[in-house]
């Protein structure tokens, strides 16, 4: 594979420590980076190369899939990590950076390829891009790719502005917008399960599917991120990106080829087909927002959201979001997609449940059995697998029907060695595969959808904000959303 210099902005931050250093090391261990690469850590804080390499080592030991570095030539890996303090508003610093990159480019024969990874707040993306250009860092014949973290803007308007800035410097094909859920093994697997199996695709429509349920629940609160989260809330933090992305993977049409643009075209069509909301009243009926109050989880008392650090004590920010969403196209007409996400819920899990319509159950009615619907469950996180619930005769009974489970636990088989989402995404970006990154039009449509909800909430004030005890499944209205349609949330595993 061709080489690259990875320029990591935000190298002293949490993401670099928890995810990026370990991911780069795992890729190196598995030969996915080859030998022609170097990493430059950039942040404001002064740090020597030695200190930086020590940070990298500690991060791998604490968070890596490969915690021991003993089996590799650690020196050869570590010497590729260089650090340079940088004020990202000062183009002179970028000129110095250029000298360093060129030196490493020559030393490790990286062919002028550069991967700029911006683990920074989005309001800095614009100035970094301009300074990369003005500092001469894009004047090579290799590739120049920009990898950026969410959130991509705060609403459609700010996202458009941000995009316009980036596009002055980078082409769309070179912008890799990360949604780390798209790097998760089981999210990628949705497409394979759907399109590679004869027994799902014929049933994958409104004739056979009763509803789809997407749950992304977390036990954690806002932790140290109160400052960011209080301005964002669950709608912008989780729904605009991870949840809508998973929804598109479930709802998209089969692409004509497995090419990045063909897949992304199909995803955009889903986002375009999302039913809008007619009024604030319509939002109130179909969307639930909640905030956790005091509560407890596994016997441990937990504070309410408003008492968390850096959170406004009168905050109306939602920590729970649920909605009934419709994809108004031929395949999905009339099928509700229920989505929910929240902090301080009873379990950490991400699951997608496809509930099938019942077969005509008149045969079994005489026996007073109630027929449970068939379920197909994608377990995304932390357990990975697929689970299929069907009905069968209880062995030895006089025709008693019982639900039985066909359970494929992928994480049980592959165990801890499933590559982390970030490994896959950095690897994909380094080889120019943008399939699992969000294209601008996807981001724009997602914001358009989310903005309608946010605008309605502004109109409604906080009158529909419901409080739920930390450690519970959110406001009661989230249950009613389904009950009113004759459904229920299936318990998560
Ligand atoms: C991030 C959100 O994008 O995803 C966080 O900003 C959230 O608030 C996290 O905790 C969840 O990711 P995962 O991979 O732990 O489910």
TrEMBL record:
Family according to the record: Belongs to the glucose-6-phosphate dehydrogenase family.
Domain Glucose-6-phosphate dehydrogenase NAD-binding: 8-189
GN (gene name): zwf
EC number: 1.1.1.49
Stored Pfam families: G6PD_C (PF02781), G6PD_N (PF00479)
Entries under NCBIfam families matching the protein: zwf
Annotated GO MF terms: glucose-6-phosphate dehydrogenase activity
UniProt-annotated catalytic positions: 242
Species this protein is from: Paenibacillus chartarius
Coiled coil residues, start to end: none
Sites where the protein binds substrate: 180, 184, 218, 237, 343, 348
Pathway per the UniProt entry: Carbohydrate degradation; pentose phosphate pathway; D-ribulose 5-phosphate from D-glucose 6-phosphate (oxidative stage): step 1/3
Function (record text): Catalyzes the oxidation of glucose 6-phosphate to 6-phosphogluconolactone.
Residues reported in the UniProt entry to bind NADP(+): 10-17, 44, 87-88, 150
Keywords assigned by UniProt, alphabetized: Carbohydrate metabolism, Glucose metabolism, NADP, Oxidoreductase
Domain Glucose-6-phosphate dehydrogenase C-terminal: 193-490
Catalytic activity: D-glucose 6-phosphate + NADP(+) = 6-phospho-D-glucono-1,5-lactone + NADPH + H(+)
This protein's name: Glucose-6-phosphate 1-dehydrogenase
